[in-house]
TrEMBL record:
Gene Ontology molecular function: L,L-diaminopimelate aminotransferase activity; pyridoxal phosphate binding
Gene3D superfamilies: Aspartate Aminotransferase, domain 1 (3.90.1150.10), Type I PLP-dependent aspartate aminotransferase-like (Major domain) (3.40.640.10)
PANTHER family named in the record: AMINOTRANSFERASE
Organism: Paenibacillus agaridevorans
UniProt name for this protein: LL-diaminopimelate aminotransferase
Gene Ontology biological process terms from the UniProt entry: lysine biosynthetic process via diaminopimelate
Superkingdom field: Bacteria
Aminotransferase class I/classII large domain boundaries: 37-408
Region forming the signal peptide: none
Keywords associated with the record: Aminotransferase, Pyridoxal phosphate, Transferase
Pathway of action: Amino-acid biosynthesis; L-lysine biosynthesis via DAP pathway; LL-2,6-diaminopimelate from (S)-tetrahydrodipicolinate (aminotransferase route): step 1/1
Keyword hit for Transferase: yes
């Protein structure tokens, strides 16, 4: 029995081959080598516990919910004022950026936000993505019918504009060579771990202003930035408020991958055109979408997120980030010391390496698994420009990170 017609666009989606293939190869290896002690440096999830200040605030909030007098039910869909104000003050005002409270939308994760945002734009918008890419940007546009057909030979969608990021361009994509409407930029970048300076980001903001396009700026790894010339927000660049939406997440910043909290900034100055050529405030559309389809992040979670901005919270987060970034340094230095070409890992928890001797990404995966019992992520899984690269993450324990690097150093590469 066929109950109804389906959204044909979903059939254009390619299977999530990457992580299932990794799991398949890992399982096979473990079956054949049950004594092997495998270390995963492929994980994109954090592993440390929540900061003490967050836990304390969440416990307090749970207790509040027990009493009718302090109980909270449905809250504002856009987030409670206490969290929105903490975001505006700490993430923006301290950097000289003024964001109004009705420009911030608290949500249960950046994955949802970067995935959902495309809904408010025209079905025929042309989308540009960096290659390699966080797959959510592509797949959500495939679902919406913007991608065109998948080409099995090029392994790309016909209507998506791919901006190659490779060692040849220092992972800084060239501006699009055709008219595009939406540009997804991710900095600090997943998977390459690379960043842009403020001047380099300005080139994109200026381009968007001159060519009427919108930048969707995913800054999920902002908290890992260490270098002074790397902007923490696209709005540090003059004029960006008229051409950019920014996404931030507490997931990696404070161990919220399971707790779930993030936010999106949609400046009031962002305008689009309707079919009749009239100007429309994009913030109004996103507000409408958010309030129609989302009922707010839990009070307990938002109190936990607010605590990140307390003096204790800031100190504890800084320790957390230091822990992961020390791991990143250990991986980076360890691999560089045996002559591997490594990128990222300075302002991001990802290390992107060029596979030795021109090996393809999957051959290197197999070598690392079989000879060092280490699991990483083949770069080609993030896009064709990732072929010949490999991603390692700094989210493991210190002990495993050190052990993994020692094992790689012993390989003949
Ligand atoms: N954006 C990028 C680039 C990511 O790598 C991730 C998570 O891995 C996300 C967004 C999703 O973050 P969240 O946990 O807030 O949904």
């Amino acid at each position: 029995m066929q109950v109804t017609s389906i959204n044909q666009n979903y059939l254009e989606l390619q299977g999530s081959y990457l992580f299932s293939e990794i799991a398949k190869r890992r399982t096979k290896f473990m079956q054949e080598n049950p004594q092997a002690e495998i270390i995963s440096l492929g994980i994109g999830d954090v592993t440390r516990g929540l900061p003490e200040a967050v836990l304390k605030a969440m416990h307090g909030a749970v207790d509040e919910l027990a009493q009718p007098v302090s109980f909270r039910g449905y809250g504002p869909e856009q987030g409670y004022d206490f969290l929105v104000n903490a975001i505006i003050e700490n993430d923006y005002r301290t950097r000289g950026v003024e964001i109004a409270s009705n420009e911030v939308f608290v949500s249960d994760g950046s994955k949802c936000d970067v995935g959902n945002i495309q809904e408010i734009f025209s079905a025929d918008s042309i989308v540009a993505v960096q290659d390699p890419v966080y797959p959510v940007y592509v797949d959500t546009n495939v679902m919406a019918g913007r991608s065109g057909k998948y080409n099995g030979e090029t392994k790309r969608y016909d209507n998506i504009v791919y901006l190659a990021c490779t060692a040849e361009n220092d992972f800084k994509p060239l501006l699009p060579d055709r008219k595009v409407d939406l540009i997804y930029l991710c900095y600090p970048n997943n998977p390459t771990g690379m960043t842009l300076t403020k001047d380099e980001l300005k080139v994109w903001v200026d381009y968007a202003r001159e060519n009427n396009c919108l930048i969707l700026f995913d800054s999920a790894y902002e908290a890992f930035i260490q270098e002074d010339d790397v902007p923490h927000s696209i709005y540090e660049v003059e004029g960006a408020k008229e051409v950019a939406i920014e996404f931030r997440s507490f997931s990696k910043t404070a161990g919220f991958t399971g707790v779930r909290c993030a936010y999106t900034v949609v400046p009031r100055g962002l305008k689009g055109l309707d079919a009749a050529g009239n100007s429309v405030v994009i913030n109004d559309l996103w507000n409408r979408r958010h309030t129609t389809k989302f009922n707010g992040v839990s009070y307990v979670t938002q109190r936990g997120a607010e605590a990140i901005y307390s003096p204790e919270g800031k100190a504890q987060i800084s320790e957390l980030i230091d822990y992961y970034m020390t791991n990143a340094g250990i991986i980076r230095d360890g691999l560089a010391s045996i002559g591997l070409e490594v990128f990222g890992g300075v302002n991001a928890p990802y290390i992107w390496l060029k596979t030795p001797q021109g090996m393809d990404s999957w051959s290197f995966f197999d070598k690392l698994l079989s000879e060092a019992n280490i699991v990483g992520t083949p770069g080609v899984g993030f896009g064709q420009s990732g072929q010949g690269y490999f991603r390692l993450t700094a989210f493991g324990s210190r002990e495993n990170t050190v052990k993994a690097v020692e094992r790689i150093r012993k390989l003949s590469l």
